[in-house]
Amino acid sequence: MWATYIQCLSNKDPSDPRSYQHLAGQEVIPVMDIPRAVLLSKHETRTLKYLLPADAARERDRIRNGEFKTGKEITQHLADVWSEINRR
Hints:
Radius of gyration: 13 Å
Helix content: 40-55%
Order of helices and strands: HEEHHH
């Protein structure tokens, strides 16, 4: 697990979804059930945690299936999801 985490953090190609790092110097945590070693910030992980189980599963599947090509797209999408949660 740590080898994958370190390898992803050292990969500098921002277009590679395996190299996602939220922001330089900001703590990121690996999410074990998302393959391709996509790293999510604590805020993004919290966003998934607060979704209803069916919604969280759907969003995890969308990330797993590569629907978003960059970490920036994942961040933007989860920010939109969070906004929707707050509107409810």
